[in-house]
Amino acid sequence: MPTVYLSKFSFSNPEPHLRAEHTQDTCRGLGFGLVQALAANPDNIIFAGARNPSSKELAAFAAAHPEQVIPIALDSADVPLNKAAAKLIEEKVGKLDVVIANAGMGKVSTMSDIEIPEFVETFKVNVLGPLVLFQNTQQLLRKASSTGKFVTISSVQGSVSNMIPGPSGAYGASKAAVNSVTIKIQEENPDLIVFPMCPGFVATEGASKFTKDQGAPREIMNSAAPISVAAANVLKHISEAVKVDQPKTLWTARGTSLGKEVPF
Ligand SMILES: NC(=O)c1ccc[n+]([C@@H]2O[C@H](COP(=O)([O-])OP(=O)(O)OC[C@H]3O[C@@H](n4cnc5c(N)ncnc54)[C@H](OP(=O)(O)O)[C@@H]3O)[C@@H](O)[C@H]2O)c1
C-alpha cells in the first residue's frame, strides 16, 4: 500500500546569489524540497499542490515521476479549489496518509505602518490556508493506512514567549495564530496526529527576501540550511511523530542554526 502525501510544490524564483551558492536546490521553496525528497521513495504517491499546476517545471518533474507525482491545483484558503483537490484525490487513491500545509508568506513592516490588506493577506495564506486544507482533507486522512497526519509548517517567529525582535509582526502573529489553530484541531480530532513545526532557517527565495527586507546582511543566508537538508529533517520528524495531547513547544528542524524546540 503506497503512502499518500499532499504537499505544496512551490517554485520560487531564486535570488542570483542563492542560485550561485546552492545550484542543486535553493532555486525552489521548501515545498519543492519536500516533494523531491518524497519522490525519491518509490513507495510514495505525492499530490503536489500548486497555484499553477500546469507550469512547465511542475509538468517536467511530474513527467519524470509518472507513477508518483500528481500536480494538483491548490491555492491557500480557496474553498472550491481545496474541495476539488480532495475530490480528485478521493477518486484516484481514496485516502491521504500525510498532509503538509506548507504555503506561507510574510511582509516586513512595523505594526505602525503595515497596510491592513497586507496583514489580511498574510493571515489568509498562513492561517486560513491550513485551516481550509484541513477541513477538506480530514475525511481522507481518516482513511489513512495508519493514523493520518496533518502538519502545518509554522515558524519560530510565531513564538510569543520568545519573540524574535524585528519588523515581522504580521508574519509572527499569523504563525502564532496557526500554531493555536493547529493545536485546537488536534484537540478536536484525537484520532489524527496534528502538529505545527518550524523547518528552521532554510535557504529559500522567501527567506532570502524576508531577511533582506529586514535589513539583515546578505551573508546571513549562508547560515541557512540547504532545502534538501531542511526537507529531510521535516520529513523525518513527521514520520517519527506520535500524538501529543498538549504540545508545549514548537519543534524546529535540526541541522540548522535554530535546531531546538522553542516555547509557544
Ligand atoms: N525558509 C525559512 O527559513 C522558513 C523558516 C520558518 C518557516 N518557514 C515556512 O516554511 C514555509 C515555506 O516557506 P519557503 O521558505 O519555502 O517560502 P517560499 O520560497 O516563499 O515559498 C512559499 C510557498 O508559499 C506559497 N505562497 C506564497 N504566497 C502565497 C499566496 N498568496 N497564496 C498561495 N500560496 C502562496 C508559494 O507558492 P508559489 O510557489 O506558487 O509562489 C510557495 O509554495 C512557509 O510556511 C514559511 O513560513 C520558512
TrEMBL record:
Pfam families cross-referenced by the UniProt entry: adh_short
Entry keyword annotation includes Ligase: no
Keyword Transport: no
Xref: InterPro entries: Fungal_SecMetab_SDRs (IPR051468), NAD(P)-bd_dom_sf (IPR036291), SDR_fam (IPR002347)
Keywords: NADP, Oxidoreductase
Record PANTHER family: NADB-LER2, SHORT-CHAIN DEHYDROGENASE/REDUCTASE
Similarity comment: Belongs to the short-chain dehydrogenases/reductases (SDR) family.
Record protein name field: NAD(P)-binding protein
